[in-house]
C-alpha cells in the first residue's frame, strides 16, 4: 500500500511529536521535586512499585488485589509480592471480601495513610513550585494538552482491549 506524500509527512510528524513528548516526560521524571519524593521513599526502603500501589489503594480504598494488578498491567503474583512487603512494613492491610473469601481487599493502615499524605504533599509542593513559574496561559495549555493525551490514551486502550476480546454475538 503506497502512501501519499501528505500521509507520509503526517506519519513522520506524529512520530517526531511522540518522540519529543517521550523526551519531555522523561525529563520531568528526573526533576528536583521528583527526586525529593523518591529520596523520602528510599529512606523507608520503599520501591517505586510499592509507592504506586500505596497511591492506588489510597484512591481506591477496599479495592481487590486483582483490580490493582489489572490497573498496573501486571500479574496477580507480582502484586501479591508488593502487597506482602507493604504489609510487612505496616503500610497496608489485607482483608477478605465478605462476598467471596478467595478475594483479598486492600486498605491503608494508619501509618500508610500518613505516609501517602506525606508523599503526596512532597509531590504537590514540588509541582507547585514549578507550576508557579509558568504563566496562567501556559499552565492551562499544559493541563488541557495532558487531559487530551489521557483521554485518547484511555480510548486507544479500550479499543485495543475490544479488539483482543470482541463481544460474541448474542452476549450482553
What report would you give on this structure?
With 172 residues, the protein is mainly alpha-helical. It folds into 2 domains: 31-133, Winged helix-like DNA-binding domain superfamily/Winged helix DNA-binding domain (Arc Repressor Mutant, subunit A), CATH 1.10.10; 135-166. The protein is 70% helix and 10% strand. It contains 7 helices and 3 strands. It has helices spanning 5-29, 32-43, 48-59, 65-72, 76-88, 110-131, 136-164, and strands spanning 63-64, 92-97, 100-108. It has a 3-stranded antiparallel sheet with strand order 1-3-2. A hairpin with a 2-residue loop joins strand 2 (92-97) and strand 3. Helix 3 (48-59) packs across helix 6 (110-131). The longest helix has 29 residues, at 136-164. The radius of gyration is 21 Å and the shape is globular. The two termini are 37 Å apart. The mean pLDDT is 84.
What's the topology here?
Blueprint: H1 5-29, H2 32-43, H3 48-59, E1 63-64, H4 65-72, H5 76-88, E2 92-97, E3 100-108, H6 110-131, H7 136-164
Features:
70% helix, 172 residues, 7 helices, three-stranded antiparallel sheet, 3 strands, Arc Repressor Mutant, subunit A, 10% strand, mainly alpha, globular, 2 domains
Amino acid at each position: 500500500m503506497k502512501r501519499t506524500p501528505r500521509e507520509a509527512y503526517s506519519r513522520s510528524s506524529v512520530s517526531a511529536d511522540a518522540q519529543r513528548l517521550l523526551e519531555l516526560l522523561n525529563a520531568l521524571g528526573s526533576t528536583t521535586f521528583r527526586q525529593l519524593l523518591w529520596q523520602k521513599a528510599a529512606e523507608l526502603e520503599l520501591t517505586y512499585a510499592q509507592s504506586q500501589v500505596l497511591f492506588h489503594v489510597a484512591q481506591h480504598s477496599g479495592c481487590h488485589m486483582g483490580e490493582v494488578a489489572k490497573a498496573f498491567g501486571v500479574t496477580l503474583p507480582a502484586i501479591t509480592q508488593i502487597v506482602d512487603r507493604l504489609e510487612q512494613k505496616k503500610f497496608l492491610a489485607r482483608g477478605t471480601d465478605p462476598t467471596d473469601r478467595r478475594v483479598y481487599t486492600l486498605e491503608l493502615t494508619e501509618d500508610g495513610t500518613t505516609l501517602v499524605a506525606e508523599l503526596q504533599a512532597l509531590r504537590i509542593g514540588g509541582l507547585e513550585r514549578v507550576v508557579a513559574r509558568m504563566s496562567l496561559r501556559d499552565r492551562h495549555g499544559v493541563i488541557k494538552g495532558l487531559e487530551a493525551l489521557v483521554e485518547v490514551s484511555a480510548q486507544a486502550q479500550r479499543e485495543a482491549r475490544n479488539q483482543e476480546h470482541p463481544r460474541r454475538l448474542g452476549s450482553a
